[in-house]
Amino acid sequence: MNFTIQNVLIATDDAYTTTDVKVVEGKISAIASNLDVVGTAVNGENKLLLPGFVNAHTHSSEMWQRGIMSVLPLELWLAELYDFAPLDTEKVYLSALGTAVETLLSGGTSVVDHLVLIPGQELETIATAVRAYREIGIRAFIAPLIQDESLTAGIPSGETERNHEPYFRSTADTLAIIEEAVRQFHRPEEGVNILVAPTGIQLCSDALFTGCIELSDRYNLCRHSHLLETKAQEKLAQEKYGCSAVEHLKRLGYLGDRTSLAHCVWLNDIDIEILAATQSTVVHNPLSNLRLGSGIAPILKYRQAGVNVTFGCDGASSNDSQDLLEAIKIGSILHNTTDRDYQHWITPRQSVEMAALGGAKALNMVDKIGSLTVGKQADLVLYDLTSLSLLPRTDPIGLLVLGRPTNAVDSAWVNGKQIVVAGKVNSINVDELRQKLFQRSQWDTQRKSQTVAEIEAHYRTVMGL
Amino acid sequence: MNFTIQNVLIATDDAYTTTDVKVVEGKISAIASNLDVVGTAVNGENKLLLPGFVNAHTHSSEMWQRGIMSVLPLELWLAELYDFAPLDTEKVYLSALGTAVETLLSGGTSVVDHLVLIPGQELETIATAVRAYREIGIRAFIAPLIQDESLTAGIPSGETERNHEPYFRSTADTLAIIEEAVRQFHRPEEGVNILVAPTGIQLCSDALFTGCIELSDRYNLCRHSHLLETKAQEKLAQEKYGCSAVEHLKRLGYLGDRTSLAHCVWLNDIDIEILAATQSTVVHNPLSNLRLGSGIAPILKYRQAGVNVTFGCDGASSNDSQDLLEAIKIGSILHNTTDRDYQHWITPRQSVEMAALGGAKALNMVDKIGSLTVGKQADLVLYDLTSLSLLPRTDPIGLLVLGRPTNAVDSAWVNGKQIVVAGKVNSINVDELRQKLFQRSQWDTQRKSQTVAEIEAHYRTVMGL
């Protein structure tokens, strides 16, 4: 497990230097020129070494529906998604592997999987994802997606009186499942973490949030949630609480420095101050926000207010990929259209810091990962700067962030263990994965969602369409 | 040159069918099941066949500065770009090849190269691009970039009195160069076309536009130009003409059904009607518009008004890639944030039509390319649906447009000639190209643009920053 990368390019404050990086027992033990080789010697020539990025929000099993979801806004899209959700753990296993492969080959060494649970097989679903991530070796943050209200409750009522089916599982039972998952699977030192992760204010009671806070405090767990992804959710929060969702979550005590919040598209200036004051993290999912027409999150405002921001791919049904470099690129340049003063725009080096250190902060891991620092865990990615997509030679980080790197990841290590070698994931058999994904699916264009048909008229009315 | 693709998936009106496609003497001669094989048999199993797309706006030599350009808006970015523009034809040759390779491997079979000319070596620059594109075999539309005003004239004056250096070459000399280029290189039947292409109203006199119109009429040439890419250009048009740039171009007679206009970000409703009435084409370059903070072009409005829209990568210094599928994806989903009614959003099948047939229309080639139609030229792309990035199997076109396809192009033909085989461009030596791009460049982060330093203060004042 010990190795020394020789003559590799790393970023300095505003330039690059060529150096050696030594890793001993999973940790970076030295960064300097001409180090004695310990363990395997890795040729770093014409390669760039960066800390691994964090894919800070995804839903792995959505991979089964990527490419086929209708062009719809979140609330209707969710209805279609759940009408066709995969219901067997073998599929969960394969899509967790697929998500990890695409994340690793685009610079990610950690993944936050806001994992959709198969009803009645909740612990089995979590166990399956844990198994997949352990096998492939990516650092895993499994955030079982929970709610205690039924789907239609997530759409504002507007002027109408509406009744919703009760959710099929009680709040207490849901919390018990999470606590059991923590007991069985939460092993941070082994790279497997369980998070508390109510889906969001739109489908969760205060009791569920409060229960999650208790679990988080008792077991030292990070907290995750969707937050104000759509205009409809902003409206719903006002209906439900008479205040913004952020103010409500603050009162409940859900926000804090180990809380990460996906999307954050519809926050006002006071909300932004609250996120800054509570040191909460925004996980920006630009591709999903565009695909679902959710809006453009005010990321430059977050940065100016001192809010930590990092990137996620979101589930592959709303992206429809798990290429983290694509999310970083679009999540960086998208905001240049929102502020005419280019001095506020995100630079490629800032993007890299957001994706690596920003992700570490989101997960309360800032002392352990997120930068090339002696003493930190060796979650590292080595990019091949002779890839056509990174040529001609100019600024390597600029090429990586603003270009469209293909086949650019040469090697990746998690906790010092190498899991990408010469551009291939070597901890699992990727060809076999491809074959299974192929065999268990079929080309399809004709499917129709029954639930969308049922709720679309109400959605259009209440949203003024 | 004759071949028959067997058992390949093609799109029907709203589904897919498996069929054979026969190509004889560069043209599609039959599309039906169980055709007799003529020429080479190509196995189409688990592959999708689409018409080749058009990369309808780029500047190939910008490849030399991709990744390194500062985070700046167009007017300042241009100053930096020209301070470091490559000035030898060998570089022009290599970047034309690089642009073609990336376009081909992302579904494009035609490229519109708004080619930056080396001062004093204008015809040599054009000859070099022609040579590169002939060698690689992509269908080339070379649009030599011309202007007759100097760079500072492209920034609005605002309240200040400003004098600009005269441009180094006369309008007449510029037009003579284009006419000579047409005589030497315009060979549509051989896949090499010359376009008239003043850079735009911001740096061109009426005389230059009028001269281009005359050449276009005399030699049956398509017309190309940038149009209203930035807020500053909208301002400048008012200063220069007292009306919108579109109205001015209409009066000059530049618009029409073989005119394509890159960007079109800052058009008003009357401008849009003019584009529709003149049957002009908008070339949407979403990544460049984001990268330079130019804005979001009102593409859904164009479509509703009946304006033809297609996609371009724009030059690699403002993108910073030539991946056409990326431009198509972002250029499709970006607009979901601009119109709350999802019934107006672009579907993946519409995106494909915009990229293929829309591109053909832009280039007055609608009878010859842009769809799988018997009698049309065989500009075809075959996608490998067993690529991990296109799995699991769902809707192939959805996966292609909304996903992040990597290593997905299996084969490509231009005019019936195969130039991508088993995922590799085989008409040139791509490894040698990589090596030359590597050798002729160096990693760099410290460069500073003198011109930006000179003009930035004025830019900030006049733009109210």
Overview of this structure, please?
Chains A, B: Pfam families: Amidohydro_1. Chains A, B: Keywords: Hydrolase. Chains A, B: InterPro entries: Amidohydro-rel, Metal-dep_hydrolase_composite, Metal_Hydrolase, MTA/SAH_deaminase. Two copies of one chain form a homodimer. With 465 residues, chain A is an alpha/beta fold. Chain A folds into two domains: 100 residues, Roll (Urease, subunit C, domain 1), CATH 2.30.40; 312 residues, Metal-dependent hydrolases (TIM Barrel, Alpha-Beta Barrel), CATH 3.20.20.140. In chain A, 36% of the residues lie in helices and 19% in strands. Chain A has 15 helices and 17 strands. In chain A, the strands form four sheets. The first copy, chain A, has a five-stranded antiparallel sheet, with no helix packed on it. In chain A, a hairpin with a 2-residue loop joins strand 2 and strand 3. In chain A, helix 1 packs antiparallel against helix 15, helix 2 runs parallel beside helix 3 and helix 12 packs across helix 13. Chains A and B meet through helix 2, helix 9, helix 11, helix 13 and helix 14 of A and helix 2, helix 9, helix 11, helix 13 and helix 14 of B.
What general outline of chain A do the C-alpha atoms trace?
globular
**Largest interface, Cβ cutoff 8 Å:** A-B, 80 and 79 residues
What oligomerization state is this entry in? homodimer
Number of helices of chain A: 15
By CATH, the superfamily of the largest domain in chain A comes out as: Metal-dependent hydrolases
User: How many β-strand stretches of chain A?
Assistant: 17
Uncertain stretches of chain A: none
Strand order of the largest sheet of chain A: 5-14-15-16-17
Pfam families (chains A, B): Amidohydro_1
Protein name (chains A, B): S-adenosylhomocysteine deaminase
GO molecular function, one term (chains A, B): hydrolase activity, acting on carbon-nitrogen (but not peptide) bonds
Keywords (chains A, B): Hydrolase
